[in-house]
Amino acid sequence: MRTDCRVCGGEVREFVDLGRQPTANGFLTPEEADREFFFRLAVGVCGRCAMVQLIEEVPQELRYHGAYRYHASGSAGHRQHFEQNARRFLDTELTGPDPFVVEIGCNDGVMLSAIAEAGVRHLGVEPSTNVAELARAKGVKVLTRFFDETTAAAVRAEHGAADVVFGANTICHIAHIGSVLRGVDELLSPGGVFVFEEPYLGTIVERTAFDQIYDEHVFYFSVASVRAMAERFGFELVDAEHIPLHGGEIRYTLARAGARVPAPAIASLLADEAARGLSEPETLDRFRRTVEGVKDELLALLRGLRADGRSVVGYGAPGKATTVTNYFGIGTDLVPFVVDSTPSKQGLLVPGSHLPVRAPHAFSDPYPDYALLFAWNHAEEIMAKEQEFQAAGGRWILYAPEVRVI
């Protein structure tokens, strides 16, 4: 446990405790159920730089390994988003005579595969060997290592400076953030940019998206905290824009101080955060109380449905499902199983709560009365695909930002 900020060393004040939790993507077999790793999932805010962060962290080797279950290509929406990212970089930052892009945490190569197809020099730095192999199968060049300043120096020595360093749902995962930024400083060309897309604290608070809090997400970025972090390591926040991924993220662009003119959006977003008191104790304490209310309402609904003899199945097994089921105490008595389209999760158990994960065909064999949508950030895509469920009288249960039945 730590009470000093990982970014600036300031004092961190805890504001929410989501209890004893396992690693969110540590899906396991029944035989492994008695050997799980658990930690206290609590979050605090730095009084100096406003960075929101985990109080306790899980060693990165326990989170990213050869059996990592998250595949970024698993959603059609994700594939489209990252293909658009690739096109954007190819049209803007990667137009020089011999451009080079490095992606921190490239996962299964969903973004870099489009860069590779364009014949542009690239490198993914990915510590999880299984997803790294999936990326290589798509023609992506991958270095299987954790990214830090040592790795960055090795990459620069072999490949030269990068025009773009990119990360998506990765930078907020890395506890040694200072080493990451020193590595970016080592690797980035003088006019290059460091672009990263991460869950947004403003969205988490506004949507009561507490299930975005789990072991992999060490930091919960705001525009104010990212600007302070950038300045501490010699960078400047030059752009920030909302993107719809995972229910609402922000894409941050950092450049060397003075290298680019900051976009007007930054001042607007900073003003909005200040007006909302986003990092203020009162706001964060109110968020905790709201989460506690959602817990009470959802459990009352599920218990009432069970008492009435209604069937409920979980839909989607993202890392968010681990947080919800463990903090709320949702077991197989309330939700007998969860369906998920990721083959590597099927036949395993949701960490901690041990809900069985089944293939999608189990959803319609037969349809349940209700489906608890853990993958709520893909609600539109999922509901469009599962129209027969609704036609058969099935109803969806959502819990962010409040409990409701559709």
Automatic annotation (TrEMBL):
Recorded superkingdom: Bacteria
Name of this protein: Methylation protein EvaC
Residues annotated as domain C-methyltransferase: 244-401
Methyltransferase putative zinc binding domain sequence ranges: 5-62
Pfam families xref list: Methyltransf_13, Methyltransf_14, Methyltransf_23
Signal peptide annotation: none
